[in-house]
Predict the structure of Formyl-CoA:oxalate CoA-transferase.
Amino acid sequence: MSKALEGIKVLDFTHVQSGPTCTQLLAWFGADVIKVERPGVGDATRGQLQDIPDVDSLYFTMLNHNKRSITLDSKNPKGKEVLWRLIKECDVLVENFAPGALARMGLTWEKIHETNPRMILASVKGFGPGRYEDCKVYENVAQCAGGSASTTGFRDGIPMVTGAQIGDSGTGLHLALGIVTALFHRTHSGLGQKVDCAMQDGVLNLCRVKLRDQQRLAHGPLKEYSQFGEGVPFGDATPRAGNDSGGGQPGRILKCKGWEHDPNAYIYFITQGPVWEPICDIIGEPGWKTDPAYATPKARLPHLNEIFTRIEAWTMKHDKFEAMDILNKYDIPCGPILSMKEIAEDPALRATGTVVEVDHPTRGKHLTVGNPIKLSASPTEVARAPLLGEHTEEILRDVLGYNESEIGEIANSGAIGAVQKIAAE
Ligand code: COA
């Protein structure tokens, strides 16, 4: 079976998380992703959070599957020459350098577009044009500036960041969509274009329900927030809502059997209107089916704390999986709080390729997250991340057409550093 993006060459000038997430998606879909890294150094994440000395970190290996690595000093004259040859050869250049860094390398959009009019230049920056456009930005900065932190956590606590990397991986995902859209546009325009995604904007896009609530506030309190039932007045900005659900159906995280010693013995429970009657039967409150104070979703809003306390008295008698089994029989929406350990061991996630084991020449076998997007005609085969510069010679020869003496000349110039040889796998 052919891969969906087979034939597309990506000059991957990304590092850390946001850009690599984007190019990893393109690589999973079959694009030839050529990761350009600084000789001797590479992507900074290779050495960050290392669990095994001198072995590429899981941070790096889990964000750079299915790519090839070439080391190239983009500030060395010979390196620049190779880089321009790559620009002529590739379809997409993806980068997430600090603002201005690409231009300082001499790679302006005008020059790139003139050299290869079909090339798409895709960039992640922390902020779009405006007062913060020159800032360097990491994940949590984007979560804070994009509206996530101010709306996450509990009302009586400080703003919270979430563990999901919505600033980095979320923006990479947005950028990948921009790239394939620009590739589609190119099929009829014949031209490449610039694709920009700011991390603040990507986070805000994922937080749009909170901007929805901001505007609803002008017309009265947010009745589905627990705060309403507790009689706490609303201020002038969307408040933090704890574990309330983001939609109109009240939901909470409730304790399950074992919560005293297991930090993840919890279930998310949604009191969806259409299944109110079975909920009442299960928790032993059949009277609430007809009692006017509980019978309708609107009537229940001021009593949510009492209702969830009663439901929790029931969930605490069951472990989270037992509770799921019972509630699912009645289509009551709920979800177990799964630990990373449970996810890593989940046979269903292994079977679908969402959790995959890969082998690596220096690290050995390790788990990674595979492609969550499943295409029926072009399934993803997850391949390990490359070693630093592992494919330098191969790319110079096979992609750029340099002969052996030219490759020697490039090596002597210092543009590619020491080329890494790996033992046969
Ligand atoms: N050869 C030579 N120089 C190279 C090179 C190569 N192959 N690859 C990178 N460099 C140079 C760059 O040109 C830059 O030099 P300059 O400052 O002289 O222009 C330098 O390396 C550092 O790049 P920079 O992007 O500034 O890295 P940083 O480690 O200082 O900052 C970030 C990291 C992530 C904060 C920054 O890149 C950034 O804000 N990126 C955009 C937002 C983003 O993606 N953030 C999320 C990261 S997950």
